[in-house]
Amino acid sequence: MQLEGKSVIVTGAALGFGYGIARALGQEGARVVVTDVHEENLSRSVSTMKADGSQVIMRKLDASDLNAFKGIVKETTDLWGRLDAVVHAGVIMPLEDWENGNEGQWWKEMSISFGGLLNATASAWDVMKKQGGG
After folding, report:
1. Share of the chain above pLDDT 90, in %
2. Residue 17: strand, helix, or coil
3. Is the pLDDT assigned to residue 94 strictly greater than 70?
4. What's the CA gap between 91 and 98, in Å, rounded?
5. 3-state class of 30 per DSSP?
6. Would you give the end-to-end CA distance of the chain in angstroms?
7. How far apart, in Å, are the Cα atoms of 49 and each of 22, 42, 64, 84, 93?
8. Domain boundaries, the chain
9. Which CATH architecture has domain 7-131?
10. Burial, 134: exposed, middle or buried (Cβ in 10 Å; 0-12, 13-18, 19+)?
11. Which family is annotated (predicted)?
12. CB neighbours (10 Å) of residue 133?
């Protein structure tokens, strides 16, 4: 992969797919900002990534918070001069099955899963457009 020196934000990077993606990006030379709401698990993930030799920083982020997401994008571009990708892997776990769910839980899941995707796009759009892409 051609990832050396690329700057990437990964949401949901404390565990699971988000962590696996962030770790693989770091191992391939990308500079990674890992985010999640679960700081303790995120800290363990960062320790492992640093032991791999990855250039990584961690930030607490609720992906449903547009202003917080914009802050992470600004911090990333201030630190590394550009943003090449955002990987939105944040979801609420455990997901409730349909029979045990309720309207409040469904909307909370949507605000993280789909809303987080919209916030990632809205936050990175102007930066990537100005750069000519990611």
Report:
1. 82
2. helix
3. no
4. 16
5. coil
6. 15
7. 8, 10, 25, 19, 23
8. 7-131
9. 3-Layer(aba) Sandwich (3.40)
10. middle
11. Belongs to the short-chain dehydrogenases/reductases (SDR) family.
12. 7
Q: In whole angstroms, what is the distance from residue 104 CA to residue 132 CA?
A: 40
User: How many residues are present in the chain?
Assistant: 134
Instruction: Indicate the residue type of 9.
Output: I
CB 5 within 8 A of CB 31: yes
Look up residue 97 and give its two tokens.
């099955």
Which amino acid appears at position 68 of this protein? A
Q: pLDDT tens for residues 28-68?
A: 999 999 999 999 999 999 999 999 999 999 999 999 999 99
Which residue blocks in 63-133 are alpha helix, DSSP H? Answer: 66-80, 103-131
Pair 83, 9: CB distance under 8 Å: yes
- Please state the pTM of the whole predicted model: 0.92
Task: Read off the tokens for 82.
Answer: 């550009």
pLDDT for 3-37, tens place per residue?
A: 999 999 999 999 999 999 999 999 999 999 999 99
